[in-house]
Amino acid sequence: MTRTAPPTPIRGTAAGLTALSAHTADETCLEARDITRRFPLGGGLLRGMLGGSVARSIQAVDGVSVRIRRGETFSLVGESGCGKSTLARIVAGLDAPSSGTIRFADARLPGHRIQMIFQDPYASLNPRYRVGTTIAEPIRFQKLLPAKAVVPRVHELLRQVGLAPADAAKFPHEFSGGQRQRVSIARALAGNPTFLICDEPTSALDVSVQAQILNLLRRLQHELGLTCLFISHNLAVINYVSHDVGVMYLGRLVEVAPTRVLFDAPKHPYTQLLLAALPRLETRARERAPISGEIASPLDPPSGCAFHPRCPHAYARCREERPELHDEPDGSRVACHAIAERRIPVSIVSARVAAHA
Ligand SMILES: Nc1ncnc2c1ncn2[C@@H]1O[C@H](COP(=O)(O)OP(=O)(O)O)[C@@H](O)[C@H]1O
Ligand code: SF4
Ligand SMILES: [Mg+2]
User: Fold this and answer.
1) Given a cut of 60, is residue 14 above it in pLDDT?
2) Is residue 124 part of a domain?
């Protein structure tokens, strides 16, 4: 295939797709520092409903720092509204942070390109264009190839995502949801990205199709040596694709760890609850432990640790002092007073998780 820069093989084939958590080169590709994003509240209705007194802005992302190694996948997980997409859009350059910095190590290299895949494939597919035209657009727009090479490249991309060259003549509505997501992946790859952002790429798909798309993304990431920021609210999906995981709660990272460490020894009470809520094949629905309480509003976040109203381990300090991430001996970083003070054991659910894996 034609690329401006040949992909570097990142992991040996022996490591293969099953050993995603083994880090290789410790080369930073992306460094996001202390990213904050506030959305000012409009005048009118919302502020009126709040009496104009509670908050003047929504703190969607609050002091998040992330480092992603070249050729690896860093995943963000957390409930809806915790700020994942806002952070992704900032990394993609589609939105600017209120404060903080984003640094790509390769930003000045000509081959450095970022592409994004969204939950809804229609977001990147024009319903009135044949998909071949849509896939070709980034190639033509960025003048990546001479005109006569565009169509063969589109056919190659379609094959790469498991579709047929003849599909180039079809319109988006002629595909199933999973096929449509394959088309938007082909379009993202057409721009020869070195950095790929996937925001809930399988959340809108049938469960049976999700695994196929995840397999495809994982294979392409591996083959092309892409660095990925992957977003999902689903920990099972995260477990499958990530080298490192960041757990977000109300705009903040509460735990960051290599995937294996996170699943074997989850530490933050929120991570533990998310893992306990993971459905297991042999568990009937009513036996699953739901996370109690509503996620608080970013309009009016709780004092101290924002998780304290839902946390079974909360104590006085949690209501007053906001916990910062601290390093744990196993390579994870956790923002929790009770963990830092060793008031609670770190792996209440690890046995269950091991059984699940
Ligand atoms: N453009 C915007 N204007 C105002 N509020 C926004 C905007 N985008 C996101 N938000 C708010 O920021 C918070 C985080 O949203 P988002 O990043 O979409 O979360 P997630 O992707 O984790 O579901 C939410 O409270 C959301 O309502
Ligand atoms: S800091 Fe306190 S409230 Fe927050 S997660 Fe830890 S124990 Fe729970
Ligand atoms: Mg989102």
Assistant:
1) no
2) no
